[in-house]
Protein 1
Amino acid sequence: MSILMKRRSVLLGSGALMLGACSKVHDSKAGESLFGAVDDWHKGLQRSLTARNALAPEFAPEDISPFFRGNGSTDPQNDGYPQHVAEGFANWRFTVGGLVERPLSLTLDQIMRLPQRTQITRHDCVEGWSAIGQWTGPQLSTFLDLARVRDAAKFIVFRCADDYTQGRYYESVDMVDAFHPQTIIAHRLNGEPLPVRNGAPLRARVERQLGYKHAKYLTGVEAVASLDDIGLGKGGYWEDHGGYQWYAGM
Amino acid sequence: MRHLVSTRLWHWINLIAIVILFMSGLNISNAHPYLYWGNWGFAPEQAWLAVPRFPGWMTIPDFYSLAKARDWHLLMALPFAFGLLFVWIAMLWNGHFRRDLATRKREWRWRAIKADVVQHLRFDFGHEGGKYNFLQKLAYGSVFGVLLPGMILTGLAISPGMEATLWWLVDLLGGRQSARSIHFLFAWAIFGFFVLHVALLLLTGPIGHLRAMTLGGDHEPTNPPFARPRHENGDSA
């Protein structure tokens, strides 16, 4: 009986310890690498169950939500962004650089003359909410092919114009998502030029991942072999400063 | 009665997984405490439920952190999902499901159900013959057949990375925000089962139950002192 009582106390005690220790486990080096691995496992599982170019669902015009909520930066004030708004983004440039054979610097007019893709998709924020909108813009692959991205490139980094408290926003995807047909550089939402709150003049759409991957206020993309030297090395502003998973498919 | 080693192993791994999933889930709920039906929803006026904010003692970690809560949630989702797959295969393989959990046609008769309910209300938990009585089979059956797999399916349905493959599942559930609402409701239904489960164990000899679920061996539930079996000689049929 007493041995059994002890067993139960050990069981309950270890349960309490486990819960109390969660924060400690999480912040340890081993914890950090475990959670990094978990992100990789989910990516591996999802990718093994999903065809490389399988499309996220696209919706009918009547499914579009009456408003498209803006989140994160919704009105950047840094580094001349308000000036660009006032000029109607006439002097905005979008660059394609890094590991490419032919770096590009494009105006919005040039971007609008490229082949366009229009898609009505659902945007899922990491917080839990969803909104549906119609996006128009060239596929990211169009830019990467024009610039002739090198084989050494393993990731595409999205460069943005908006500052957060700990620095400039940025995000990244691997080549699977960079060349996915629905990964576009959008300049229109619901047929209108992109509103400032949703990332004017250009934002990324990465339809099989959560909202924080869809970088706004794009100034360019950069092809890189590794994310180690970008920001703090985790592949995105929130990954670096907020602890979010780099792969955001779940 | 006797628990197989597959059941015992799964039971404790699943307990750890479910506790962490539930508590990290409440932290995630705090990030946007509104639930919607359909595919989209992003503002309080569209919500069918404004969820109360869960205090730190109910959540993992014990302060608001969507990122860390998601880390724990996604970690424990794996042993939870693969564990359930394992225990279902084991239950079908070793006959536990057919022998102990599947209900018989005669158990669905109103008189039999009424007798079972009355017996429970008298805190009389002895049962002759089978391992579990009808209400137990119903409870375990709903948990194994609906709530636990439902959590995995709704969890997959709210993962944008799976939707290119599982779009039909999202449609079946009524859209992503419906799937998210069901995920939340099922989580609380499992919590309800957990409370009932623990309460009934406490009433029927918790030490014996713990020993049987940990070490195995034979074990019969005992009635609490205030039980009122219909017949003193235990012939309650």
Note: Chain B is about 60% helix and 0% strand.
Protein 2
Amino acid sequence: MSTIIKFDIKELKKLANDKNSCIIEKKVTQNLALQPWCLGNLKESIKNLLDYKIGKFDKEFNGILLSYKNLRILQNVGTIRNDNADIHFQVQADYFIFRPFVGATLTGVVNKKSTTHLGILVHRVFNVVIPRPTEEPGNMWVGSNIQEGQEVKFRIVVLDLFGALPYIRGQLDDRCVKLGPDGDDDEEVEKKPTSTINVSYVDFDKTKPYSQKQIGDGLPHSTSKNNTKLINSGKMQLKISSPGTVNESFNQSVNGKSGSTKAKNVESEISVTEKNKTKRQSKLIESEQKQFEAQLKPNKKHKRDVQ
Amino acid sequence: MSGTPKSVAASLMQKTLERQAALARMRLRFTKNQVEQILVNCVRNNNTGPYLELVKVLREYPLNEDNFRIVFDDSLSCVVLLGREMTQYVDVVCNIEWLDRSEELVELYRKFVLNLVTAHTYHCPIVMMRLVTLFKGDGENWEDSPPSELLNKWSHIHDIIGHIVAIMPMTSDLLMHIIIEQFPYYKAGCYVNRAYIYNLIWISKYLPSLQEQIMTAVINKMISMDVNIAEYEKGKSETMFEMDIDCQDEVSVTLDYCMLEVLKWLEDERDPIMNVLCTVFERVVLPTYGIRHVQFLLLYTISINQQCADRVLEHLWTIAAGRQGMGPGALTTRKTAASHLAGLLARCVRVPNTRLIKYLKSMAEWCHSYISATQESTAACDNTKAHGAFHAICHAIFYLVAFKHHLLFMNKENVNFVESLNLPRLVTCALNPLRTCPPQVTRAFSSITRSHQVVYCQGIIEKNARHTLQSTAVQQYDEWFPYDPYNLPISGKIIWPLCIDYKDWLKEGDDETQYSSMKRKLEEDDDYLVMASPTQRLASSLSHGISPGFRTSENIFI
């Protein structure tokens, strides 16, 4: 179970109280089958088993499990049935289940807009698609003046939760979206297709080459920005620089700033003992300390190489 | 090679056919909206003829730029129609070569893929699978870092994967699943495996939440390589002829480069990733018996990060002593933990002496309390299985004393410490740990302790020898020492400086570290191989140095 689909209990409570969220809280007692090796740490293995189910459709719940709380194992002794190796335990917990149904109305955030459909994210994880109706005469569609990031209400039309990913198709509620003055702004969408999405769990800077080394060196803010800009503007056609050269260019920029400490830094670049490092560090003004620390890391590398 | 007229005719035929195919490819031209028409027709009117033809054409002919643009523009405009029944078409379209094309077309492909997966989530597995398989392309191994063109291409793939995961958070599980499923076979070659691991590490950088799972997958794969190398080496000594050597060398080269990639990863990300590595080590590496190389990642980690070192050593000790939460744990795991602990304390340069002393002390204390506990119970049976953990920890103590003699018998103070461990009681106790101790450890331990007048074990050793003469079964010793010198040349350059070589106390004045001798060995590589005559090999194999556990870098290349 990845951390991306992790829900806060409080957040879920709020959603469960909301009638329109399709999330329900339910106390369920169910039978879990454990492998014999799980008995070493019963509680932990039951947790793992339930964690594994999170984000997947479960027949027993008739919905997608989001989270659970108040886990209780009802028996002290497990049962073995029909010569099976599995050991069965009765387990009770409060489960939060996402149970959408055709005809339900949900609210979600638009996170993908194209000329043919809208992609909507419900409860942070579930993707819903609202296709543009193709049969309708005319070129008007209420969906086309919805912006990315906007919240919309829709009705579920088609539902398939059995696949690897749930498939939900929706239909826009006409009343909820007011028709703007200019019915169509497709052109605009076409023009800015590469707008990057801001999500906390994906770091798009690092999908580019070369960024890895800068991160490894732990550059201070100002310089790292400059560097990435440089590289981005160069459209990645810069020659690959070995870690050594990256460090060099970085040192130069730092030295340029710190001025008086320049000579010392150059010295330390060659190789210094641990003691010298700390001495110098104390001499530096506090504001520069961070930069210096960041620079020490590459030096350590050098030291190892020298050995 | 033009032999018979028949073959000439055949080759002529072949050429004609090829030319015709090339011509057809040249002539293949989609008109604008043609593809869209076909698709719409198929969905609305159930007219599958042209659709199937289109699929066939797309599968067999490489597209030129114009056709590529038309196909993707049209597919883009009718993305909504590409439902489940069009899976075949989706598969074919996603498989069209796109990485080598211009920026604009790559952008088009990206847009199509993003639209497709958001409109139809059930196509996501196919699309992801196609993207991940692209990491397994052919290519040439690289030295320092991959060529920039390749990096550029890969970054396009990563960009798409990143966007898909950003828009559809639930795909992260799916992605992980596909990554593990698509992992190349361990014998598939060095480049393929290295490139794949390189890209997995890249993925872990922009999807930090997958870090641990990716690390687990990578380490798992490397362990399977490692185990196979070890298996092979075992087999080598038994067979008379050296067969399929190339294939095996390939695996060790592969492992070498994979180790290099992971070491670079550790060096880049440091603290967070090192903690992850420790967790993975505890879960995956520790239960594996008999591997030779992967554990050196841990040695690297603990030499760089003191917190990790303390964490790992503490964990190993709790497992070896059977003190973790639920029950004492499996005997094999405890034995492995003991040998890892002894190996790390002995071989790692950066482990401070205070740690060595601390763990020697706690091991000895544990053993003494074990002896006291068993004395009170029934007469000590010589069931080595029941007391396996005790034996393993005793061996760890003997090994450490024999290996670290330079330090432990350096001055009076240290000798006093060794005496305070009360080793004679361990040696002479009824459980007789020396009986199961590997002979080379016994030999080194007894000679060093005798010379410093700490323990006299000769009597016990001889008594044990007499017992083994009586019994018919051949005694099997546990001869696996996880941190015997590392012998992969490329990643070794990073690892060797962190290891200590064993120094026999009888040989004096040999001040060489493992690193320098290894380096020298590599430099004079060719000459060395020529010079090593059979008699020399025999001579060196008779000396102490070659025995496992005390193996020095001198003899691993033989």
Note: The radius of gyration of chain B is 31 Å.
